[in-house]
Amino acid sequence: MQYVYAAMLLHSAGKEVDEAGLTGVLKTAGVEFDEARVKALVASIKNINIEEAIEKAAVAAPAAAPAGAAAGAEAADEEPEEDAGKKEEEAAAGLGALFG
């Protein structure tokens, strides 16, 4: 993921996303990296319009949210009210799973 973040950082700064730039960002961040992975990333995004890819990703994410919200609303109607403390614990556990 650090490789992609470095590429996004270079792109947002208006710099060319190349091996030297990626290597520089990763070194500055103190990330251990593999030169082969840097080369592979540069080769794989060489012909991609990053701005267009970001716009498509930004549009696709909200489209999925309403379906999940509707399912959550249906589940809330079917379940009896639970203790507020228990819900907080469940929410905290769910967030903890995101960050490993």
TrEMBL record:
Keyword tags = Ribonucleoprotein, Ribosomal protein
Q: Which domain of life is it from?
A: Archaea
Coiled-coil parts of chain: none
What residue spans carry the region label Disordered? 69-100
Question: Which GO molecular function annotation, any one, does this entry have?
Answer: structural constituent of ribosome
What CDD domains does the entry give?
A: Ribosomal_L12p (cd05832)
One CC-aspect GO term? ribosome
GO biological process, alphabetically ordered: translational elongation
* Similarity field: Belongs to the eukaryotic ribosomal protein P1/P2 family.
What assembly does the database describe for this protein?
A: Part of the 50S ribosomal subunit. Homodimer, it forms part of the ribosomal stalk which helps the ribosome interact with GTP-bound translation factors. Forms a heptameric L10(L12)2(L12)2(L12)2 complex, where L10 forms an elongated spine to which the L12 dimers bind in a sequential fashion.
- UniProt function note: Forms part of the ribosomal stalk, playing a central role in the interaction of the ribosome with GTP-bound translation factors.
Q: Which HAMAP family match?
A: Ribosomal_L12_arch (MF_01478)
The entry's protein name is Large ribosomal subunit protein P1
Give the species this sequence originates from. Candidatus Iainarchaeum sp
What does the record give as the organism's lineage?
Archaea, Candidatus Iainarchaeota, Candidatus Iainarchaeia, Candidatus Iainarchaeales, Candidatus Iainarchaeaceae
Gene designation: rpl12p
